[in-house]
Amino acid sequence: MSEQEQGPTAAVDPSPSDRPSVIGQAMRSGRSRIHDARLERRTSDRLYLVALSDGEQLFDCPIAQARLEPALGSAPRRVRLPGGHLFLTRDPAIADLLGEPAGQQGIGRFETSRRWLVVAVGMIFLAGWLLWSQGVPVAARAAARVTPVSWMSLMDDSSLQVLGVTMKIRAHSDEIRQAKTQDILDRLSAKLETQREFKLLIADVHLPNAFALPGGTVVVTQGLLYEVWPENGTGSDDVMAGVLAHEIGHVVERHGLENLYSSSAVYLLMSLIFGDAGMLFEHVLVNGQALLELAYSRDHERSADDFGLALSRQAGYDPEGLIGFLERIQAMEEAEGFAMPAWASTHPNTQKRIRRLREQLQE
Amino acid sequence: MLTPENGWRQVDFHGNAREWFGIWIINVCAMVLTLGIYSAWAKVRFKKYFYQNTYLAGRNFDYHANPVSILKARAIVVVAIAITIPLRLWFIPVLAFAILFPAALVLSARFNARNSSWANVRFNFDGRIRRAYFVYLLLPFLSIFTFGLAYPFVQRATHEFVAESHRLGNKRFVFEANAWPYYRAYLIAIGMGALGAFAMGIVAGGLVMIAASSGSLLSGQLANLDAFATIVGGYVGMGLGYAALSVCLRNVLFNNLELVSPGRVHRFRSTAKIWPTIWLLSSGLIAVVFSLGLLLPWARIRYYRYMAAHTFVRVDGDLDDIEGDLQGDQNALGDAYGDVEGFDLGLGI
Fold first, then answer.
1. Is A296 found in the same domain as A193?
2. CATH number at residue A31
3. With the C-alpha atoms ordered A92, A98, A102, A105, is the resulting torsion angle positive or negative?
4. Which of A43, A70, A105 is the last residue of a domain?
5. Does residue A155 share a domain with residue A50?
6. Are residues B170 and B185 in contact, defined by beta-carbon separation less than 8 angstroms?
7. Are residue A99 and residue A157 in the same domain, yes or no?
8. Are residues A98 and A165 both part of a single domain?
9. Chain A positions in Cβ-Cβ contact with residue B30 (cut-off 8 Å)
10. How far apart are CA A261 and CA B151, in angstroms?
11. Which of B29, B167, B345 to probe by mutation at the A interface, max A CB count within 10 Å?
12. Distance, in angstroms, between A201 CA and closest chain B CA?
């Protein structure tokens, strides 16, 4: 039994035949032994498989029962014969023998045409860009719109369980400052067109910060409470009102949900396309996408700024409070040389935010 | 020496980047146009191309899965996961994953084995689901109590489970390995990881020093650069460690694997090297990123060709007596769950 690295056609036919035939290798159903063989068409509708070594007839069947698998690159063509027998050949004449129409069939036609490949590359970049810049955000927004509030509360609970691992979150903290914050939150939410429930939680974190979860849970850090009311709760409420109104904006406009949906959709698309690329590749590609996505959430920040400005004014707070606060942050950033370049930050550059807010106030 | 004179034969791979690029790009294009539905056909075409171009002892492999089965299973898995998104109480997906994945691994391995063939003989996987829970859940859990020191034993148990559950036709794979090569693999991986992180740290530190001495940076920016250098160093270290580990484990798996039939033992060897593999992966990654993904087929073919060229089999007599009557498997659920959640048996060719 000979084994040929380069495949079936290397075999020499010892008994050339004038009938249409193709030389290759045959394997019986579920057997690994190779028989160098000739697939021969003796009548118009019947195939015969003949061993090259001794001319023994191995098998025969009606031509209609032989199935020629579609070509795949330059791999040998596979002919599936009834009963699970297999015939392999590199001879292109097999197409003719089994009556396959001329030229490449099916999707293989595109795979081998240079023109189609160029078209495909262009189409993928265009479709990918359209999907990423238009399709996914629109679909995510639509999905966020129709998500019931009860689902979002569930999501809040699960997010808090995860957050609870990294920071201590509690319902009660500094009583005076927390009561004031709660009071401001209530006054702001009372002015909303559609009523939503908001829940205030305090995080044991020194950095002044605040964030909101999709279901209406607003988390304020201990640091922010002290930053806003340095001396035992005295001082203006305008700053906290500005911050909370901004966060309410994120909740009402469902920005968090939109982000969740769009990043899941993009993740799914990326893993479909590059899924066969291996773990390391996928990791880099998906993380690269997260970096690009920051631009998307800056729109959200601007939108929440606008929303917050209008809401805090409506509830009777002075928007100058938030601007003053932002200016203090900016001064802090400058003093420490801490300013992140704009592309790397989820929040728009502080200076830009201040300028935008000021301009809106002048209207 | 792994030479033909000693009976060792290399695994041949005849695929080429040009051809695979054509197939891949049309796959991607069709997936985008059909919003992902074509992915099932793309998977089959991908596997068929690589299998059919891989030759062992003069005979190639093939993949026979029915794309419609894959599509149906993927639809079920995606819908099931989509339904649980709003219920993302953190423990539900984690718990579901922990409960499902050993079973899914077995179903997936069975599906893939039964739909893969060499010569005209199908593979089979007859590992028990119960055993998979033991190997993939209980053992890793128990190794926690040894502070991970026993983890190489767990790795060996997974290799043994995977290898010995596979059959080619009526012939069984046998696997027997010492624990030491596994410890060696993890030690090398940890060493490479530390080395990578350290080297990157020095490079990044040097850059920061240069920047600082020029006096053009503020202290806060320095802190940012420092953090950046730490993250990059961490990634490089992880990448190197992961690459080294996968090469070592692949070698251990093949070098202790035998295909046994009455009176005959066919042996395998893998001689992949760590540094060439790291070069293939890192240069490939850079090429892929800078070509916006277009060089992915090239990187893949190059990597696959290297692995094939470093895989050998010593056939005892011949491989003509392998037989089996199995004809496929249509249950693609485990396979689809693995694809969506991104896990598999983690075996190369």
1. yes
2. 2.30.29.30
3. negative
4. A105
5. no
6. no
7. no
8. no
9. 107
10. 37
11. B29
12. 19
Is residue A125 in a domain?
no
CA-nearest of B299, B276, B305, B277 to B287 is: B299
Do B227 and B204 meet the contact criterion of CB atoms below 8 Å apart? no
Name residue, tokens 């059959």: B167
For A33, phi then psi, to 5°, come to: -65, 135
Contact A41, A49 (CB under 8 A): no
User: Closest Cα to residue A322, out of A258, A231, A257, A244?
Assistant: A244
Closest of A125, A269, A161, A16 to residue B87, by C-alpha: A161
| Amino acid in position B153 | F
Q: What are phi and psi of B218, to 5 degrees?
A: -90, 165
**Chain A residues closer than 8 Å to B326 by CB:** 30
Q: What angle is formed at CA B120 by the lines to CA B118 and CA B123, rounded to 5 degrees? A: 50
With CB atoms and an 8 Å threshold, state whether A336 touches B220.
yes
Whether B120 sits inside 8 A of A86 (CB atoms) is yes
Contact B184, B248 (CB under 8 A): yes
- Hey, how many other C-beta atoms are within 10 angstroms of the C-beta on B68? 12
- Quick one: which of A100, A97, A101, A102 has its CA closest to A43? A97
Going residue by residue through chain A (363 aa), what tens digit of pLDDT does each one get? 344 444 444 444 445 556 788 999 999 988 999 999 999 988 888 899 999 988 888 888 998 899 999 888 889 999 999 988 999 999 988 988 888 776 666 777 777 778 888 888 898 888 878 877 788 888 888 888 888 887 777 777 767 776 665 566 666 657 788 888 899 999 999 988 888 889 888 888 777 778 888 888 888 888 888 888 877 656 778 888 988 998 899 888 888 888 877 777 777 676 666 655 454 455 555 555 554 444 446 788 888 888 888 898 888 888 887 788 778 777 776 665 544 444 344 455 677 878 888 888 776
Whether A68 is covered by a domain: the verdict is yes
Q: List the structure tokens of B10.
A: 């290399």
Whether A157 is in a domain gets the answer yes
Q: Which residues of B touch A30 (CB under 8 A)?
A: 120-122, 169, 323-326
Q: Do B321 and A32 touch (CB under 8 A)?
A: yes
Total structural domains within chain A: 2
Residues of chain B numbered 196-255 and touching chain A (CB < 8 Å) = 217-224, 239, 242-243
Question: Does A140 map to a domain?
Answer: no
How many degrees, rounded to 5, is the angle at CA A276 between CA A271 and CA A278? Answer: 90
Domain ranges, residue A246: 149-362
Q: In a mutagenesis test of the B interface, which of A32, A113, A285 is the best target, namely the one with the most B β-carbons within 10 Å?
A: A32
Kindly provide the ipTM of the predicted complex, given to two decimals.
0.83
| Long-range contacts (CB closer than 8 Å, 24 or more residues apart) made by A165-173 | A167/A203, A167/A204, A167/A205, A168/A203, A168/A204, A169/A201, A169/A202, A169/A203, A169/A204, A169/A219, A170/A201, A170/A202, A170/A204, A171/A201, A171/A202, A172/A202, A173/A202, A173/A204, A173/A222, A173/A225
CA distances from A269 to A131, A132, A266, B32 (A): 10, 10, 5, 9
The encoded tokens of residue B120 equal: 């005209």
Q: Do A337 and B218 touch (CB under 8 A)?
A: yes
pTM of the model: 0.77
